[in-house]
Amino acid sequence: MKASSQTRLGLFYVVSYLGTGVSLPFIATYFHSRGLTGAQIGLTLALPMLIRPFTGPALAVWADGFALRRTPLAWLALGAGAGYLALLAAPGFPALLLCWLVAMTCLTTLTPLIDVITLRRSRLEGFNYGVPRGAGSAAFIVGNLAMGALLAVAAPSIIPIWIAVAVLGCGLVALTILPPDRVHETQVAPDKSMRWKGLGTLLRDKTFLLAVVTAGLIQGTHAFYYGFSTLLWRREGISEPMIGVLWGVGVAVEVGFMWFAEPWRRKVGPERLLVLGGAAAVIRWTALAFAPPLWLLFPLQALHALTFAASFMASLRLIERLAPPQSASAAQAINSALSAGFMLGVATLASGPLFDVFGVRGYLVMAVMGALGLIGALRLTGLAGR
Q1: H or E segment at 208?
Q2: For residue 197, is pLDDT > 70?
Q3: What span, in angstroms and rounded, lies between the C-alpha atoms of 13 and 339?
Q4: What integer is the mean pLDDT of 361-381?
Q5: Low-confidence winner among 74-83, 91-100, 242-251, 352-361 (lowest mean pLDDT)
Q6: pLDDT at position 1, please?
Q7: 249 phi, psi to nearest 5 deg
Q8: CA distance linking residue 329 with residue 203, whole number of Å
Q9: DSSP label of 360
Q10: Computed over its alpha carbons, how large is the radius of gyration of the chain?
Q11: What pLDDT score does 191 carry?
């Protein structure tokens, strides 16, 4: 029996996030084993995020030149796999930086492109987008735990090898399993100049830009948490296993929100979800700035369902609604480039000095970002009510 679209799309997310679940937590370990300094590692990790406002839309315009949406996914997976494998042979910092830039630029473009397919299929076929996407988050945990166990017996070179295998697997899934959705209703794609013109139209839409910036501000507040929560919790005397539990709680509520909150999400609407995400960010990061006791960390971690999952899901739905179908890839790429790219990259660069100078109080800067996102979300809610 032929698998459903939901199952096939879920498989792509699972394979993809098996790689991301290793890349995000562990790639710095590999770079450290290659002799990179902390400053070099920070620059290497941040650079792909900082240039995503340029590379993301450009690759989306390129992707829209194909007949089928799955074809550029396969090419990007091949590019990402080649970049990760090239890390093993890169002779020094400049070469490692270049290989990582190629690998991450290709890998991070996969997500907005697969989201376009999944959002469309979920709308047409009536399934919950959060189910296949949540399966990816669950796979993230599996990849994280598996690599932690592997590193106890294997050299750090296993890290880029694992990620390369995962992303090359994405390419295989894209070519053989994903639905053959067409990019354009006509048989011939618009020429490149028309696709760039469509991108320009999006960038002149003030409501679209407000939505993208608002989501980016809320998502960017996670930078300090991603980079330094483990170190700060160690300072507070929390054990390594308990820190792992705290991180697991955050991802678990994210998965639960995506899998089980669909009827409520549709009732609330994306604008109000962004309001909830912004308000939760202000509460979460302000509370963490005052080193709360362990028992209070659990409900604060549960707010990840709002600060990340709700704002992420809201931004996808809002961008899908605001963008014309022929610019769907570009719209989601711009959204991803800002929320998981530029704003997160800038906040990541700022987080190091904040940690050095202010310690746990650095979370207060993230709370201010969340407040700005909340203001933008309230503005979007007002516009939607007109």
Answers
A1: helix 206-220
A2: no
A3: 19
A4: 95
A5: 242-251
A6: 45
A7: -60, -45
A8: 14
A9: G
A10: 20
A11: 55
3-state secondary structure of 29: helix
CA pair distance 325, 171, nearest whole angstrom: 24
**Would you tell me the crossing angle of helices 363-384 and 223-235 to the nearest 10 degrees?**
150
CA–CA distance, 311 with 321 (Å, rounded to integer): 15
* Contact between residue 14 and residue 188 where contact means Cβ atoms under 8 Å apart: no
d(CA 343, CA 223): 9
**DSSP state for residue 186 in the 8-state scheme:** S
Report pLDDT digits (tens) over 40-74.
Answer: 877 888 888 888 888 887 888 788 788 888 999 99
Distance CA 339, CA 325 (A): 21
User: Structure pTM?
Assistant: 0.77
In angstroms, the CA 262 to CA 258 distance is 7
pLDDT of residue 190: 54
Residue linked to tokens 């308990």: 242
Bridge partners of 362, per DSSP, are none
User: Nearest CA to 161 among 12, 14, 23?
Assistant: 23
* C-beta atoms surrounding 256 within 10 Å: 16
Phi (first) and psi of residue 180, to 5 degrees? -85, 60
